Amino acid sequence: MNLLHIDSSVLGHHSVSRQVSAAVAERLTKAQPGLAVTYRDLTADPLSHLSGSHLAAAQGGAADTALQADLAAGQAALDEFLAADIVVIGAPMYNFTIPTQLKAWIDRILVAGKTFKYGTNGPEGLAGDKRVIVAVSRGGFYGADTPAAAGEHLETYLRWVFGFIGVTNVEFIAADGIAVGPEMREKAVNGALQAATDLRAA
């Protein structure tokens, strides 16, 4: 069994999503001692955003030396994802959606013929055998029953992305309201860490 642990926060040790994603990974590795873990920090080692040159190369066009290295990095990210049985993602909300670093990673794993394909009935996901757990941190409150619900484009986006490639049961652990004040931050973090501890092992 392989676990891929992804972090995308730019805040380093001050990050709530990193703290919670680490707790999730720790819970799963303790429950399954033989679990092999691959860690990717998308801030410390970012992937480039897609460009016209990337898309041209994907269609068989020539790639210069610099682009070839970048394409190899993207292939490595895809290979890590394909090899993973469990994927744990630390995903803070920045300006109502995911960090740009996480979007760059998603662009490398949504690949036709690898994680999805188009058929006569439309798109079909090819990665449905994975378990995906997302540790979310949000400064405010964006639940379905809140005034800001329409501005929530992190969880809804990730549900769609992973559903598109066949992962329909994405698990979310959220720390909400961390920018409201110190007491709310502590309560949110403690609640998320408890949820990580209570996470089912398999």
TrEMBL record:
Q: Which InterPro entries match?
A: Flavodoxin_fold, Flavoprotein-like_sf, FMN-dep_NADH:Q_OxRdtase_AzoR1, NADH:quinone_OxRdtase_FMN_depd
Instruction: Enumerate the Pfam families for this protein.
Output: Flavodoxin_2
Cofactor(s) annotated in UniProt: FMN
Q: Which SUPFAM superfamilies match?
A: Flavoproteins
Q: Taking every annotated instance into account, which residue ranges of this chain make up the domain Flavodoxin-like fold?
A: 1-197
Which residues participate in FMN binding?
Answer: 9, 15-17, 93-96, 137-140
**Which reaction equations make up its catalytic activity?**
2 a quinone + NADH + H(+) = 2 a 1,4-benzosemiquinone + NAD(+); N,N-dimethyl-1,4-phenylenediamine + anthranilate + 2 NAD(+) = 2-(4-dimethylaminophenyl)diazenylbenzoate + 2 NADH + 2 H(+)
Question: Looking at the record's lineage, which domain of life comes first?
Answer: Bacteria
According to the UniProt entry, the coiled-coil residues are none
Write the Enzyme Commission number(s) for this entry. 1.6.5.-, 1.7.1.17
Alphabetically sorted, this entry's keywords are: Flavoprotein, FMN, NAD, Oxidoreductase
Query: Its biological function?
Result: Quinone reductase that provides resistance to thiol-specific stress caused by electrophilic quinones.
Q: What is this protein called?
A: FMN dependent NADH:quinone oxidoreductase
- Origin species: Tardiphaga alba
What is the organism lineage in this UniProt record? Bacteria, Pseudomonadati, Pseudomonadota, Alphaproteobacteria, Hyphomicrobiales
Gene that specifies this protein: azoR
